[in-house]
């Protein structure tokens, strides 16, 4: 509230519905209504949990990511449907608090669809050492409440079925845009079959004074992506030239160790036929990581084979979310692996691992490994 007051912004609490291209009606909690007339409308309603067909979430024994944040006690056992970003983040938290966690994942890797596969394997090794169990290439057929707990029937790609029973079932198969009940049909704003709103480079919908950003449009569902889009979108409304490089939007998985990446994965550049080279450096060879007794992980740098330009940087480390910002800045300015390799990094710091990986990509091998 103070933030809005400092910026002389008018707020209206409640549920908003767009009724015309220039008018929004807000239904208040007490049943009252507020009508707002405006020149432009910016849709930034975010996303909601994607339901799993046939499994009813009660936020007590069968929970979504929302319910998993407010369990009354640490469960003895926890089953995850989905080992993507949300699944491994929440699963690893409850694992460290004492729960026995088993994750069932339809894909052949953890961490979601956009993660570099070598990095996914590194994270899986770390989480497995901590006690988490993973059942990959496995689909959930059913889940039901029993006196013993929540019973899940799963089937792997070979057709073998397995029964798992746990105190809590966490359903985390992703999120979907929150675009229902906004009144978009009232004014003809286009929405694709997945609920996303198509926009142009200025974030305009098919109605020019109605804009959309964040989780309701295409791209990764990340808070920092949405924040940048919001700033850029409003600058465009005021006459600026909107620009955002989606190859330079970092992603972070907040496990321990963390995982972070920006740019292309090795699978991306292979599929595109781009000539590339890789430099990597293990955290076990980094002085600061050894001092901290926190040596799980690595830095992996992907550079263009001919030009040495950075194409992607992938990190597994306890501080990966911090390290990735140096790589993001470098890529935004078109840096090469040699550029980072020749920048003096303080010693001893974990960031030296990024420099060493860039040395390996540029020169063929790192200095201190």
Notable features of this structure?
369 residues, alpha/beta, 5-stranded parallel sheet, 5-stranded antiparallel sheet, 11 helices, 26% helix, globular
Word description of this protein:
With 369 residues, the chain is of the alpha/beta class. The strands form six sheets. Strands 6-13-7-8-9 form a five-stranded parallel β-sheet. β2 and β3 form a beta hairpin. The termini are far apart.
Spans of at least 5 consecutive residues whose pLDDT stays below 50 are none
Count of helical stretches: 11
Helix content: 25-40%
Which class of secondary structure composition applies to the elements? alpha/beta
Percent of residues in β-strands: 25-35%
The Cα radius of gyration reads 23 Å
CA-CA gap between termini = 52 Å
User: Main β-sheet, in a few words?
Assistant: 5 strands, parallel
Number of strands: 20
Overall mean pLDDT: 95
Secondary-structure topology with pairs:
Layout: H1 2-6, E1 15-20, E2 23-27, E3 33-37, E4 41-43, E5 47-49, E6 62-63, H2 65-68, E7 77-81, H3 85-96, E8 100-104, H4 117-129, E9 133-135, E10 138-146, E11 149-156, E12 161-166, E13 168-171, E14 175-177, H5 184-187, E15 210-212, H6 223-237, E16 251-253, E17 258-263, H7 266-272, E18 276-282, H8 287-291, E19 298-304, E20 310-317, H9 320-332, H10 337-341, H11 352-363
Quick summary:
The chain is of the alpha/beta class and 369 residues long.
């Amino acid at each position: 509230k103070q933030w809005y007051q400092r910026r002389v912004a008018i707020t209206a609490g409640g549920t908003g519905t767009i009724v015309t291209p220039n008018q929004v009606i807000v239904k208040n909690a007490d049943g009252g209504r507020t009508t707002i007339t405006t020149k432009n409308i910016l849709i930034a309603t975010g996303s909601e949990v994607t339901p799993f067909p046939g499994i009813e979430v009660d936020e007590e024994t069968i929970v979504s990511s929302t319910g998993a944040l407010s369990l009354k006690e640490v469960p003895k056992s926890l089953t995850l449907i989905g080992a993507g970003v949300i699944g491994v983040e929440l699963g690893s938290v409850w694992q460290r608090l004492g729960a026995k966690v088993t994750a069932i994942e339809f894909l052949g890797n953890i961490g979601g669809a956009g993660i570099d596969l070598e990095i996914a394997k590194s994270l899986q090794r770390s989480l497995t050492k901590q006690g988490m169990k993973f059942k990959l290439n496995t689909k959930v057929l059913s889940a039901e409440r029993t006196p013993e707990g929540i019973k899940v029937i799963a089937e792997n790609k070979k057709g073998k079925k397995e029964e798992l029973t746990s105190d809590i079932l966490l359903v985390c198969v992703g999120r979907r845009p929150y675009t229902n009940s906004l009144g978009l049909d009232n004014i003809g704003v286009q929405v694709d079959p997945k609920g996303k709103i198509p926009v142009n480079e200025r974030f305009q919908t098919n109605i020019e004074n109605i804009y959309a950003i964040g989780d309701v449009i295409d791209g990764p569902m990340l808070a920092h992506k949405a924040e940048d889009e919001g700033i850029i979108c409003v600058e465009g409304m005021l006459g600026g030239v909107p620009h955002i490089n989606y190859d330079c939007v970092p992603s972070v998985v907040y496990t321990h160790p963390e995982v972070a990446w920006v740019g292309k994965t090795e699978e991306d550049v292979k599929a595109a036929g781009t000539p590339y080279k890789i430099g990597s450096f293990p955290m076990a060879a980094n002085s600061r990581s050894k001092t901290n007794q926190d040596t799980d992980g690595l830095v992996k740098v992907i550079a263009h084979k001919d030009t040495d330009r950075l194409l992607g940087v992938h990190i597994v480390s306890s501080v990966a979310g911090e390290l990735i910002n140096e790589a993001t800045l470098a890529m935004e300015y078109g840096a090469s692996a040699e550029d980072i390799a020749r920048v003096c990094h303080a010693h001893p710091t974990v960031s030296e691992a990024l420099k060493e990986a860039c040395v390996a990509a540029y020169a063929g091998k790192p200095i201190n490994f």
